């Protein structure tokens, strides 16, 4: 059940080579054995990009790649973090003085987000110190949610080390909020699927209140993830937060034009629910109210009847003060059309018509076009990779994750999978020396995996 807390599984380490290896490395690093292990998976979003923070449902599934942490609670109030990948430096800090540096999104800061989220939720005065050794198999900056998986895993580790329990939903909500310590205004999809995922099914994730519904994917097709090898770090660039702000401004202008209390409205979903209209009707309203040309800050103030000073102090966040133009029409159009595609995708999966794969593929293609043209979160490499995947037999293909780099997800007929993988490898990875070097982790078929758990030695 999704409401329960993440389960603790007793395991025989000899049957789990990865855990066994992590235990041995832990022993040589800290001189003692871990008491438990926590795991949180990455995810691939099948459809519904950049709409979770606007209040709309998304459709991800967990993948096998994950963050795994071996943990030993200790008497000292110090957290010592180490990573089996030597390019990530060791870090230690007092548990009573957590400082998260937003200017440099280093790996340990994501761990500290999860730690701080749990500490603050319970008001822990003397939290337990910990020795932690981390092993991650999610390619970093690939749009498969490596950073959120680390935040979630750290939250789970802190919870267990301090002898507390929470439901998966509560954990997801706390980890969503706590990732904002690093400066990313995320919407909650990544954390929710990391905790709520179940093997064999994708999930429709809805927000306020958070809930997850199984979506059985059609048989006969396999989802394939391909990494563009262009790295994108949401916390290190402003693209992502600018889009969040453009959606917020579009919300205000649409609300004002319809006589709603625009100052209270934060998300595009709020406008639709207050007006009580369909997503199709919202698209018509966008056409009537907003113009395709970018808005200047002055024009936004004029539309809202406020001063520039008020715009900067009340609406724009700290890191948005220098942005001078905003594309409101394009962003709103993407969000409302993408929200409709998610619901259509779910409906096709549940009704399973004979041509389900073709219909789903079409929705994925439309989603990519909207991400590329309306939301402008693609990049030339992602577009090329989508084209190559479609050329070699994918029924649908699109960018997944925030975009501006990272991965594509493609739906491929299972009987064509091997030739598809071979051809994409040749066309995209083997033409480029740098991509060839990381090719092994860059192209893989995946199926819906399970959510976060704790392992204890049996």
TrEMBL record:
Substrates-to-products reaction catalysed: N-acetyl-alpha-D-galactosamine + ATP = N-acetyl-alpha-D-galactosamine 1-phosphate + ADP + H(+)
Pfam families given in the database record: GalKase_gal_bdg, GHMP_kinases_C, GHMP_kinases_N
Record flagged with keyword Kinase: yes
Spans through the membrane: none
Residues in the signal sequence: none
GO terms for biological process, alphabetical: galactose metabolic process
Single annotated GO MF: galactokinase activity
ATP-binding found in the keyword field: yes
Galactokinase N-terminal domain segment(s): 26-73
InterPro entries: Galactokinase, Galactokinase_CS, GalKase_N, GHMP_kinase_C_dom, GHMP_kinase_C_sf, GHMP_kinase_N_dom, GHMP_knse_ATP-bd_CS, Mevalonate/galactokinase
Gene Ontology CC: cytosol
Enzymatic class: transferase
EC id: 2.7.1.157
UniProt domain GHMP kinase C-terminal: residue ranges: 354-429
Domain of life: Eukaryota
Domain GHMP kinase N-terminal: 109-196
The entry's keywords: ATP-binding, Kinase, Nucleotide-binding, Transferase
Family: Belongs to the GHMP kinase family. GalK subfamily.
Subunit structure: Monomer.
Name assigned to this protein: N-acetylgalactosamine kinase
Organism of origin: Certhia brachydactyla (short-toed tree-creeper)
């Amino acid at each position: 059940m999704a409401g329960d807390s993440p389960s603790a599984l007793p395991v025989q380490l000899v049957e789990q080579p990865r855990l066994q290896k992590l235990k041995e490395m832990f022993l040589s690093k800290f001189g003692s054995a871990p008491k438990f292990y926590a795991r949180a998976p990455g995810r691939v979003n099948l459809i519904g990009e950049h709409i979770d923070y606007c209040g709309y449902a998304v459709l991800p599934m967990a993948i096998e790649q994950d963050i795994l942490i071996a943990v030993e609670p200790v008497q000292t109030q110090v957290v010592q973090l180490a990573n089996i990948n030597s390019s990530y430096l060791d870090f230690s800090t007092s548990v009573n003085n957590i400082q998260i540096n937003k200017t440099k999104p280093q790996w340990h800061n994501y761990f500290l987000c999860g730690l701080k989220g749990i500490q603050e939720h319970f008001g822990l005065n003397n939290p337990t110190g910990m020795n932690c050794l981390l092993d991650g198999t999610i390619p970093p900056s690939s749009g498969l949610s490596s950073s959120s998986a680390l935040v979630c895993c750290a939250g789970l580790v802190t919870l267990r080390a301090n002898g507390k329990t929470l439901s998966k939903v509560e954990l997801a909500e706390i980890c969503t909020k706590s990732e904002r310590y690093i400066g990313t205004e995320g919407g909650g999809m990544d954390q929710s699927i990391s905790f709520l995922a179940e093997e064999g099914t994708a999930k429709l994730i809805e927000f306020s209140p958070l809930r997850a519904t199984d979506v059985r994917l059609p048989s006969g097709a396999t989802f394939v993830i391909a990494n563009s090898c262009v790295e994108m770090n949401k916390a290190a660039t402003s693209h992502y937060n600018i889009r969040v702000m453009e959606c917020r401004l579009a919300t205000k202008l649409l609300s004002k034009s319809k006589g709603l209390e625009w100052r209270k409205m934060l998300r595009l979903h709020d406008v639709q629910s207050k007006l009580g209209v369909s997503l199709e009707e919202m698209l018509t309203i966008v056409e009537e109210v907003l113009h395709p040309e970018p808005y200047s800050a002055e024009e936004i103030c004029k539309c809202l009847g406020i001063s520039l000073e008020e715009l900067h102090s009340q609406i724009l966040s700290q890191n948005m003060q220098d942005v001078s133009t905003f594309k409101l029409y394009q962003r709103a159009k993407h969000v409302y059309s993408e929200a409709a595609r998610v619901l259509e995708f779910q409906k096709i999966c549940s009704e399973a018509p004979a041509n389900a794969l073709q219909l789903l593929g079409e929705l994925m293609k439309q989603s990519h076009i909207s991400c590329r043209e309306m939301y402008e979160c693609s990049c030339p490499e992602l577009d090329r990779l989508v084209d190559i995947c479609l050329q070699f037999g994918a029924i649908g293909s699109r960018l997944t994750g925030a975009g501006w780099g990272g991965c594509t997800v493609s739906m491929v007929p299972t009987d064509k999978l091997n030739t598809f993988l071979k051809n994409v490898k040749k066309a995209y990875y083997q033409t480029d020396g740098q991509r060839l070097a990381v090719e092994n982790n860059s192209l893989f078929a995946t199926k819906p995996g399970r959510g976060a758990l704790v392992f204890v030695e049996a």
